[in-house]
Amino acid sequence: MHPIDLRSDTVTRPSPAMRAAMHDAAVGDDVFGDDPTVNRLQQTLAERLGFEAGLFFPSGTQSNLAALMAHCQRGDEYIVGQDAHTYRYEGGGAAVLGSIQPQPIANQADGSLVLAEIEAAIKPDDVHFARTRLIALENTMGGKVLPLAYVADVASLAKQRGLALHLDGARMFNAAVKLGITPEAVCAGFDSVSVCLSKGLGAPVGSVLCGSRALVTSATRWRKMLGGGMRQVGMLAAAGLYALEHHVARLAEDHRNAATLAAGLAGIDELLVEPVQTNIIYLHVPSSRCAALHAHLAARGIVAIIAPKTRLVTHLDVSTAQIAAVLAAFQDFFVHNR
Ligand SMILES: *Cc1c(COP(=O)(O)O)cnc(C)c1O
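A: This is the predicted complex of the input protein with pyridoxal-5'-phosphate.
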């Protein structure tokens, strides 16, 4: 029996059917462009998201970094949210490896950046300043879906000011499923999108960067330099293709499970639960109770990172019955065991 692991949607294990698809995958040397399964994955995702080309990466971090490096040259700048993954959780790669200066802006509660603040951060063409080249958004951001009308406004601002627009769409499919629209509609207006296969989609590894043919050609060079040129990697791409076919629509189930759990947790006086949109729940736990709660859950086979601001994530390896067990464990701790 595996524990009920709510730390992240990255913890899923490939199912027997996904493993069978990986086992049977046709492969070739992808650095030579010879791997038919990688090529099919790249093409499939590019088409589905409305781009000319796609490129398979070992991780979302590398995919985002190669995208930033393809858009920006040394001494250029990108405008990004203070809480964005590319800025905050990727080791400063844009600055360290890309020589790209980040210009962070505060994220609003809904994950957006205020348009006027983006505009104010765009630098004039003057030797004193880095050259502003790119705006980067994230969707979903902390499990929240960016409103389509907002994205359209940022896209038109970018266009007006001659800037490129990148989407860190690690959980872009969660946004599409939540809004009930096509992935292509979520990606409309962006010049590039990075999508994770190894989060809610349940593949063991991989991200795909989509964009124009020219952008992907440039990103391919950076990927090689960053050590992401892989060989008979069709076995991993097969997992991604399997996930795209079988694990997209079912994200709605993760969203339902998260909503159910959040509603139940909201009934516990000591917890403050933030509104939930997709598969990520944030709840505020009294700090004096964190250690004991963690131990209580662990003793019941529930793995979670319990902190004053706790994040719980639902995914395809957590069933609705297990969600009920998680809720019961919380109630047992806070209500019955005071
Ligand atoms: C996980 C994640 C990434 C990076 O993906 P890795 O494969 O873990 O490198 C990028 N952006 C967001 C929003 C993520 O959640």
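The longest strand covers residues 131-138. Residues 259 and 276 are 6 Å apart (CA to CA).
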